[in-house]
Design brief:
- This protein has 204 residues and is α/β, with parallel strands linked by helices.
- The chain has one domain (33-197): NagB/RpiA/CoA transferase-like (Rossmann fold), CATH 3.40.50.
- The protein is 28% helix and 23% strand.
- The chain has helices at 3-13, 35-45, 56-66, 119-122, 127-130, 147-153, 195-203, and strands spanning 49-52, 73-75, 84-85, 100-104, 107-109, 114-118, 133-138, 143-144, 162-165, 170-172, 178-180, 187-192.
- A hairpin with a 5-residue loop joins strand 10 and strand 11 (178-180).
């Protein structure tokens, strides 16, 4: 037998028990403040920003105000047209010139200042990484306090891809200097918009 066979045989002899019970995970308290406010505070610490918008029309107007010079706004949100529809993108390389990427997040996690996004939300995964700036629509009712709460609601097997995004891209050197936008999105803006408002606007 080769060394490889010896190693694999040892692994097979020492497989974990399938009848072992998983440990109980305690429920951890949140930040001691309402989830939405806690989320906004933590998101800001991660370099992101958030704004409350009452309607989809207000969300679209806010995007125009934040990025007045943007020529390519690629939207994965049916209610916001943008200048390019993500459904028309056949090759991720086509997103190389996107200045603003717009998509909806399924969940917000207050303690991490993060949003949970799946392949179904992005349509083309590269939208979240090739866009210069990201705008995320999030229902305030979908914000939970902790990651433990989030995993209770996330179905990781329902999509081949999912990511928790907290703020824009950032990197830090040995001196502790943080550079934002070095390897991805330069900014991340969360627009807090209720799903019912979005649905009503879309069907009006």
């Amino acid at each position: 037998m080769s060394a490889r066979d010896d190693i694999l045989a040892a692994v097979r002899r020492n497989l974990p028990r399938t009848d072992a019970l998983l440990p109980e995970i305690p429920r951890f308290a949140g930040g001691g403040e309402p989830a939405v406010e806690y989320f906004r505070t933590r998101l800001e610490l991660m370099g992101g920003r958030s704004m409350e918008v009452p309607t989809v029309a207000a969300a679209e107007a806010t995007i125009g105000e934040l990025f007045p010079d943007a020529r390519v706004v690629c939207s994965a949100v049916p209610e916001i047209a943008g200048t390019r529809r993500i459904e028309q993108v056949r090759d991720p390389h086509e997103l190389h010139d996107v200045e603003v990427g717009v998509f909806r997040a399924r969940l917000g996690v207050a303690e991490a200042g993060a949003v949970w996004v799946t392949q179904e939300d992005l349509v083309v995964n590269a939208l979240a990484f090739l866009s210069q700036h990201l705008v995320v629509l999030l229902d305030p009712a979908a914000i939970v306090n902790t990651l433990h709460d989030a995993y209770d609601r996330m179905d990781c097997s329902a999509s081949p891809y999912g990511v928790l995004m907290a703020g824009p891209s950032a990197t830090g050197d040995i001196e502790g200097v943080i550079i934002r936008g070095a390897q991805g999105a330069r900014s991340l803006t969360v627009l807090l918009l209720t799903d019912s408002t979005a649905r009503n606007t879309a069907t009006a």
